[in-house]
């Protein structure tokens, strides 16, 4: 059922983003006097087809992984003399430039609208309360302590860990010194102090960012008492039951649930003997921990959950929400910043500072779509906005076959006063085809690597 839900939300996401992208091309082309023959969401056999009064076909096709706008063009077929002024290839360069640019611009406009919706609805998150930093980390060296709350990064206010992650990436990718303003605790907003974090040993890669900095979210201590079992998981297979209290692992005492969970995540596939209490009896079981692939890492899995006391988490809860009028400039700012961050991260992949594992394929995107939709509309809108930004930025890369490549060729034509020689355009298209094939291959490889584990 989870796979089906992921697939449904993935199709909805791709359909919406592609439809909006292609609508940008479609709308501007018609406004500038170019004849549009077909506006299609999806590829392949048409499932639905409607022909407008002007002859334009509106199509919903069978393969929901893209779309296109087909314009009248002498390079693609014969054009009647009466229609020549409306052919795309007969338009002056500035018109063709605007038509091509309209697709990515439409995605950026959509991202603003989606970020605005997410901010108006509001997203629940965890306040930026710190756990105890590891001894050798940048946070520990800077003197940060458990229970302190990060309230600003380089002068910018921050309320949740989601916001903090974006701000940290923006600063670290530019190798700026991090100036964190912190307060003593949730209950004590004053006094506040400023702490500087060095970035000498900190990697830009999002996969390692928090670990290298030594920043982790504080979690209230939870007793290691099982409240639920995962069907088919290691705990259920070994005969554990709801209500069992974990006491030890291989003779070492288990503190709280977080202590146990940290050890499990760090030991995928380990054989362990667990001592536990059931009613008045003390028992033990041996089991092999399960394992999952998450964020490019192999992590252990026990297959059980612990009881959570909601009141202990309430003080850590924060809501990222703004009134409608305030949300609009915030959404524009978020779109701009995420666009720059996406472009910079892509550049760092070429220099090797960011792992190529960060290139997501359709399976990973589908998983994110299903997860975000399952936890609320605001999260799904936020997910859609991020993908819309990524789609815009990737399409604007100066790579032939992408919109950015067409824009580059058109800009050169405007500067030269004539198009590039056909031979150079063909070479560019071959390069673009190779680039896209490698990018798609990498995305599928990352998906399969995560799936196989």
Number of strands: 16
| The CATH top-level class label of the domain at 124-218 and 310-320 | Mainly Beta
Question: What sequence of helices (H) and strands (E) makes up the elements?
Answer: HEEHEHEEHEEHEHEEHEEEEEHEHHHHH
Strand content: 15-25%
| Biggest sheet details | 4 strands, antiparallel
CATH structural fold name of the domain at 124-218 and 310-320: Pdz3 Domain
How far the N terminus sits from the C terminus, by CA atoms, comes to 21 Å
Uncertain runs with pLDDT below 50, 5 residues or more?
A: none
Average residue pLDDT:
87
In percent, how helical is the residue content? 40-55%
The tally of helices reads: 13
- Give Rg in angstroms: 27 Å
Structure commentary:
With 453 residues, the protein is α+β, with helices and mostly antiparallel strands. Among the domains are: 124-218 and 310-320, PDZ domain (Pdz3 Domain), CATH 2.30.42.10; 226-308, Roll (Pdz3 Domain). The protein is built from 13 helices and 16 strands. Strand 9 (245-249) and strand 10 (252-253) form a beta hairpin. Helix 1 packs across helix 2 (93-121), helix 2 (93-121) packs antiparallel against helix 11 (377-395) and helix 10 runs antiparallel to helix 11. 30% of the residues are buried.
Features:
four-stranded antiparallel sheet, Pdz3 Domain, alpha+beta, single chain
Layout of secondary structure:
Elements: H1 2-31, E1 36-51, E2 57-71, H2 93-121, E3 123-126, H3 138-141, E4 149-153, E5 156-157, H4 161-173, E6 178-183, E7 192-197, H5 209-213, E8 226-229, H6 234-237, E9 245-249, E10 252-253, H7 257-266, E11 271-278, E12 281-288, E13 290-294, E14 297-301, E15 304-306, H8 310-314, E16 317-320, H9 324-351, H10 362-375, H11 377-395, H12 403-416, H13 422-452
Antiparallel strand pairs: 1-2, 3-16, 4-5, 4-6, 6-7, 8-15, 9-10, 9-11, 11-12, 13-14
